[in-house]
Structure formats: C-alpha cells, structure tokens
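Narrative summary of target 7.
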Amino acid sequence: MSTNIALLGGGTAGHVMPNIALLPYLKERFDRVIYVGSETGMEREICNKQNIPYYSTKTIKFYRRKIWKNAALPFRLTVGISEAARILKKEDVDVVFSKGGYAAMPTVFAAHVLGIPIVCHESDKTMGLANKITARLSERVYTAFSGTFRRATVLPTPVRREVFEGVPFHPFSDNEKPTLLFMGGSLGAEAINDALSECYPTLSHKYNILHITGKHGMPLRSPSYLSVPFADNIADYFASADLIVSRAGASTLGELTALGKRVVAIPLPKGESRGDQEENAAYYLERGAISVLPQSCLNGDRLTAAIDSSMRNRPPAPAYDRDTPKRLAAELYDVAKMKHLNRQRNGEIGE
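Modeled conformation, tokenized:
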C-alpha cells in the first residue's frame, strides 16, 4: 500500500522553503510527494525547479482593510475546496502538511472534510490567521517558538541542507574588505534599498556590498558593489557575507541564525504586516543572536552605525539542530501510517 503526502503553503518563500527542506527526507519514507498551491504564486516555480508534482486550486485572501474585496471569498473558497478534494482523492493522499498562508486553506478544508489527517507548522512567534484556523483542524501542531499555540510541539523551522553548503565567491577588486549582503526577502524591500542608496558612499569605503534588490533595482556601478534582482544560489551569498541586512521573516532569521551569521534585521512594521516580523526580531534580539533596526528609525546614518556596531562583535554561535527536517519527516510518516492502521481496523482496506 503506497503512502502519499501533500505539502501546502504559498504566497512567500517563507511558506515554501521549509517544505523544500523536508523533501529529501520525505522521499525516503513516502512513495509520492505532491504540492498543492495557488495558480500564480511563487510556489509553482519553486516546485517545478525541484521536480515536485504541482497542483493548483482557487485560493482566497482575507483583506483586513479593503473589506469589500472579501465579497467573493465564499465562492472562491467553495470552488477551491472542490478542486482540492479531487486532487487529494486522485493522489490518494494520506496526510497533509501545511506551512500556512491563504493558498493552503482550500486544501486544508478539503482534507478535513475527507478525513485526511492534517499537520501544520508555524514559523512565526505568533500564528497567522490561516494557521490559527488550520491548527484547530490539525492532528498535530508544531511551532518554532514556545507559547505560540497551547497544544503545540516546539520544533525549529526546517532549514534546507543546501543552506549549509554554500560556496563563498569573491567578485570584488578588493577582497580584503568585509562583505555585506543586503536582502529584502523574496519580494525585495524598497525601504532597505533606499537607505542603502543614502549611505552607500560611506559603506563602500569600508565594505564590499552584495545586494539582492528584488523588483526595485539600484543604478549603482562600483568595484565594491554587485546586485542581482533574485538569487537562486542564496547559500553562496550567505557564505560570502560577513554580515547580512535583511527583513525579519521567520524562515530567513531561522536560516541566518542556523549559520551563525551577524544580522541587522529591519522588521516589516505592523500596519504593513500583522506585526509578526517585529515579534520574531524581538525574540532573537533578546537572545543576542541579531541586531535590530526598526524601519521607523531607518536612514543611512543609522544603518551605517548598526552595521559598524555589529561588525565589531563576534559572530553568534550557530543555533539549530540539523536533524530537524529528518525528525519532522518521520513524524509526518507516523501520522500517515496511523491513518492506514485506522482504515484497516475499520475494514476499509486489507491487511
């Protein structure tokens, strides 16, 4: 009897990359691994590169400010649930694993209706709305932080093993200078780019600068500066950097603290998000793992000061158990096998 799993999570790389971290270990245990996501999200492209069978459904997004946009939610959700149910039946899925995001919700509801066990993992200090709902339907709940959900097991966010295998590269004319990496998450960060533009003349005297710009590029040309819109080989950029300036997404901070990197985090402020990045950053700041510069204080001078201050300190010790993805994959397999045993007891399938 084959054992199959469906992975869910989309919208940002933070919802997708932890699933990718599980793949090598899931493939050791499950006969088939599929991904169910949105029709247009980045998860489709990522899965295609990983050769994971990908299915899409109609998805929903709840608008907190533009309430009138929520009028179509019941229709889209109903269609999405129907599409997801057909996929789960066709693939004979035994367990669904959700990393959150609205793209996961139709499949979560479909799995619940079909009696397929659901497992979810929350990377942020507090749960997003999608995972708050999913957790209440889940057989097992995992969180990266203690206190996030009352009946959760604490387990770090899975980190891809290739993150630890980055190869440093040195594209600059003066490779004696320390290297900074600026990145704004999978969608880029205009505020970080603007602050860098302001302080670039000062920084470039002391540092080489790698810059993952996102959609908002910068017209800089210098022997001390290299920019790319996106980086598929992010591990090489991590390995090349002495300090990283980034947003405070849970997956990003999980990867950087796992590597023991100096970090100046600029959390996406509440109002532009639900405040999760500020909470993530506060947690790591309390433990001395990162420095934090609030966006409300962000300008060229303060960014330079934060970088210089962090560079005077030793890098923090790496903080991560590399067996985390393997352990989570094993627990997901246990849930799937329990489903088989229950079906056998109920006479639905043979011994």
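The chain has a mean pLDDT of 89.
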